[in-house]
Write a structure and sequence with these properties.
The structure holds 2 protein chains of 2 kinds. Chain A is of the alpha+beta class. Helices cover about 30% and strands about 25% of the residues of chain A. In chain A, the strands form 2 sheets. In chain A, strands 1-2-5-4 form a 4-stranded antiparallel sheet, with no helix packed on it. In chain A, strands 3, 6, 7 and 8 form a 4-stranded antiparallel sheet that branches. The termini of chain A are far apart. Chain B contains 10 helices and no strands. In chain B, helix 2 runs parallel beside helix 4, helix 6 packs parallel to helix 8 and helix 7 runs antiparallel to helix 8. Chain B starts with a helix and ends in a 13-residue tail after the last helix. The chains are: A alpha+beta, B mainly alpha. At the A-B interface, strand 6 of A face helix 3, helix 4, helix 5, helix 7 and helix 9 of B.
Chain lengths: ~190, ~210
């Protein structure tokens, strides 16, 4: 056995010996603990406030920091795109949502973003392709136009007529295939089950 | 209500015609929207469709769409005639008992490239459920770039278990995936598996 090994063995034996603690120490520690006031019960709001204002050290890698910055920038840009009208005259954003006003029909909301349009009408299979039957209303302060139409279950082709002279399909809806008249339509399908 | 009106017009035309050969019933909504010569031709097509038991509402809509878009008469008549043929093929594939909405959606699927056999299979698998939404979703999937045969296989794979809401959610998810950059076929396969439709009915994209 080498000398180095013997030294290690001696250190191990020393470490295995029980630690002797002054018996007064236990009593002194317990007495000091008894003087510490019990923690107060906090309400959820107080606890939340405390959690929010408590200072922390956060470690972020350079790559993580860049990703977080990109995420914040993306969120800001997305917010701007939604809140502020785009510069395009064409419809740029549409959502279609359905609620159930009755057993046989669904109220389908058509929404289109056309900030510079002076009028937008919804024209399709459900209104005899009448250019004046279903005018859309413009929300105050932005370029969102919308209208809600009750539809029975089925498949309907439609388009938006902007300023009375320009046909625009719904960019957010499926496109109708095989256009017969050179101006593409969108389709909305209303389910019944 | 429109169908009731159409039936009334047929009866009225029959009564007015007496023993003479009945003239084509005039669809009132076409009045003032189409030039008279075009209107006469469209009315004749509507009469033929009615006699064949086909829904005429889609034909009227197509003519009115052409009128709104200032299409010329020849184009309007051609479009109505073409659609009447597709409605007939869809009705033959789906059966005489199919509803007008089913036949109309079936015609859309055929125009998208589905085969009559696909519609028939859909009808068989959904004997007690409407095929309107299923056929419409088939057409919509083709519109986002899914090959017609693959779209048909997927829609058929869901036919036994999916309700309308499931079909519509399935279509929305595929559209969303494609919009985010996925290939249409890959998106369809993933979403079909997630929807629980990947069975023997859908062994994968079909070869044409």
């Amino acid at each position: 056995m080498r000398d180095g090994d013997r030294v290690v063995d001696r250190v191990v034996e020393m470490l295995k010996e029980p630690v002797r603690i002054d018996p007064v120490l236990d009593r002194r520690v317990m007495a000091e603990l008894a003087q510490v006031p019990a923690p107060r019960r906090t309400t959820g709001i107080v606890a939340l406030t405390g959690w929010l204002v408590r200072k922390r050290t956060i470690a972020v890698s350079p790559l993580g920091g860049l990703a977080a910055a990109a995420g914040i920038a993306l969120a800001v840009l997305a917010g701007r795109a939604w809140v502020f009208p785009t510069a395009h005259h064409e419809p740029a954003l549409t959502t279609t949502a359905a609620v159930s006003p009755g057993a046989d029909t669904r109220a389908i909301q058509f929404v289109v973003l056309a900030p510079r349009a002076s009028s937008v009408t919804l024209v399709g299979d459900f209104n005899d392709w009448d250019e004046t039957a279903t005018p859309m209303s413009r929300a105050v302060g932005n370029g969102l136009w919308s209208v809600t139409v009750p539809l029975a279950p089925g498949r309907y082709r439609y388009s938006f007529l902007v300023d009375g002279n320009r046909w625009e399909p719904d960019p957010e809806a499926p496109r109708a295939l095989g256009d017969d008249f050179g101006r593409p339509n969108s389709v909305v399908t209303v389910g019944g089950s | 209500m429109r169908r009731g009106l159409g039936l009334s017009l047929i009866i009225a035309a029959g009564l007015a015609g007496g023993s003479r050969a009945p003239a084509a019933a005039q669809e009132p909504r076409l009045a003032g929207r189409l030039p008279d010569p075009v209107r006469v031709q469209v009315d004749a097509l509507l009469d033929s469709a009615r006699a064949a038991g086909l829904p005429t509402e889609p034909l009227v809509d197509r003519a009115l769409e052409g009128a709104s878009k200032r299409a010329d008469g020849v184009r309007i008549v051609t479009a109505v005639r073409r659609l009447a043929g597709e409605l007939g093929a869809a009705r033959d594939a789906l059966g005489l008992e199919s509803s007008p909405a089913e036949v109309t959606a079936g015609a859309s699927a055929l125009r998208a490239g589905a085969r009559a056999g696909d519609l028939h299979r859909l009808r068989v698998l959904r004997a007690r459920q409407s095929v309107t939404v299923a056929a419409a979703v088939l057409a919509d999937l083709v519109a986002v770039g899914v090959p017609p045969d693959t779209a048909a296989a997927a829609v058929i794979a869901l036919a036994r278990s999916a309700d309308d809401a499931t079909y519509l959610a399935f279509r929305r998810n595929v559209e969303r995936d494609v919009a985010l950059g996925a290939s249409p076929v890959a998106a369809l396969g993933v979403r079909l598996t997630a929807t629980g439709g990947a069975t023997a009915e859908y062994p994968g994209p079909r070869k044409p």
